[in-house]
Amino acid sequence: MSNFICFKAEWLSDEDDRADIITAYLAEYPFTHFESESRWLKAFADENDISEEEYEGIEEAVMDYCDRIEWSIVERENWNELWEKNFFDPLQVGDFYVRATFHPEAPEGTRAITIEPRMSFGTGHHATTRLMLTAMQEFAQDFVGSKVLDMGTGTGILAIAAEMLGATEVLGVEIDDWVVDNANDNLKINQTNYNTMVHGDVKAITAVPNDYYDVVLANIHREVILSDMMAYIRVLKGGHKLFLSGLQVADETLIVDHAKSLSMRHLKTENTDGWLMILLEKIA
Description:
The chain has helices spanning 18-26, 55-62, 79-86, 127-138, 157-164, 177-189, 222-235, 252-261; strands at 4-10, 33-37, 40-46, 68-74, 91-93, 96-100, 111-115, 147-151, 169-174, 195-199, 213-219, 236-248, 264-272, 275-282. The chain is of the alpha/beta class. It folds into 2 domains: 4-74, Alpha-Beta Plaits (2-Layer Sandwich), CATH 3.30.70; 122-282, Vaccinia Virus protein VP39 (Rossmann fold), CATH 3.40.50. The strands form 3 sheets. It has a 7-stranded mixed β-sheet with strand order 10-9-8-11-12-14-13, with helices on both faces. Strands 2-3-1-4 form a 4-stranded antiparallel β-sheet, with helices on one face. The radius of gyration is 18 Å and the shape is globular. The relative contact order is 0.11.
């Protein structure tokens, strides 16, 4: 089993937007998880996904925004300990309470989502996941008795949340096989009944009939969303919603204009720390 590459960028200034800018550049590469504090950002990827020949290009892309760059390898078996010590604290997003297996039980009256902390993206801590969880609760009625597609499911956090909101069929699609294993473990931990995870990309929904899903979720990179949006819309019922994130402020016009060209209506955009959730509706 492969380990992880860790790319770390540090800067001396107090500019708050450095992490967002660097993350935007790194999003063009197969990094799956980001951590940041006031003056540094770490990005992680499977060591098989980024070759040493790509290091120089990555460094050149961000070097104008940082003062120091480091590369290191994180052993996969040490990831839980690293996360527990340095990153993953319990988090409440509306009624959802996101916790790890090593945390105390969730407070009474919350919807507890328990995540086994591996490298998969999606613990609720990144702004994009928080935005999606918030929007899903705002439109909770759309999930009652629904069929939901979750593209780029990561840990499965949004798929699990969809079932907790009342979905009766949820399909999570994830391109990394080891991430699918993590997601399946999380389905068991959360005792889901209506969730299925599959390994693949947008081709995994080729056989899905037109107008099949009531809700489609996609928290992925901008380029993937632009490339695959037509497929998401094909399987979405008319008059129903597509929730998008993994996007930044500069992406909004491009995403919304593309969606409108595919017969979608722009309902709203929410912004947290420069990251966006864009809500669209398929024109019936």
